[in-house]
Amino acid sequence: MPRSQRNDNFIDKTFTVIADILLKVLPTSQREKQAFTYYRDGMSAQSEGEYAEALQNYYEAMRLEVDAYDRSYILYNIGLIHTSNGEHGRALEYYYQALERNPSLPQALNNIAVIYHYRGLQALERGQAEISKMLFEKAADYWKEAIRLAPTNYIEAINWLKMTGRLPND
């Protein structure tokens, strides 16, 4: 049974019913409807920590989905799973792919910045000051772009940028 038919809580059931109605009403192809169903099932599995199942659904959605914008969100969610699993290199690959299809995805920019910042901290701990500086600068660049797109979403990043002199104080 598809995950979308196994939802246990009220909110998931409500979302599923609404999504099913929209899929029936909207003029989309059967392929697009299938892609959305896999994407929705992937999100459900991901929210429950079932990452292997989520990835299977996302990969199937990618196989079916042709719209670049929609693919960007699938790629972003695959990146989230790899980030959660500590696979930062793989996560970056998926975030970059998401941005290639949708350059206005501030959450992907933010997550890239978070990874570079984390790597900068690791380099500092290893005594690699120059490498950490370069990684922090990359993090700053990505955070600045994320903040440009969503000015109120990344308060901690804004504070870090100001505290480190990478963003002028107001």
Automatic annotation (TrEMBL):
Localization, UniProt:
Plastid, Chloroplast thylakoid membrane
Q: What is its main location?
A: plastid
Q: Which Gene3D superfamilies match?
A: Tetratricopeptide repeat domain (1.25.40.10)
| Homology family | Belongs to the Ycf3 family.
Source organism of the structure: Fusochloris perforata
Q: Indicate what this protein is called per its UniProt record.
A: Photosystem I assembly protein Ycf3
Q: Which domain of life is it from?
A: Eukaryota
Q: Name one GO cellular component term.
A: chloroplast thylakoid membrane
Matching NCBIfam families, A to Z?
PRK02603.1 (NF002725)
Entry keywords, A to Z: Chloroplast, Membrane, Photosynthesis, Plastid, Repeat, Thylakoid, TPR repeat
* Role description: Seems to be required for the assembly of the photosystem I complex.
Which Pfam families does this entry report, sorted A to Z? TPR_1 (PF00515)
The record's section on InterPro entries has: PSI_Ycf3_assembly, TPR-like_helical_dom_sf, TPR_rpt
- How is the protein disposed in the membrane? Peripheral membrane protein
The segments carrying the TPR repeats are 35-68, 35-68, 72-105, 72-105, 120-153
Q: Which GO terms describe its biological process?
A: photosynthesis
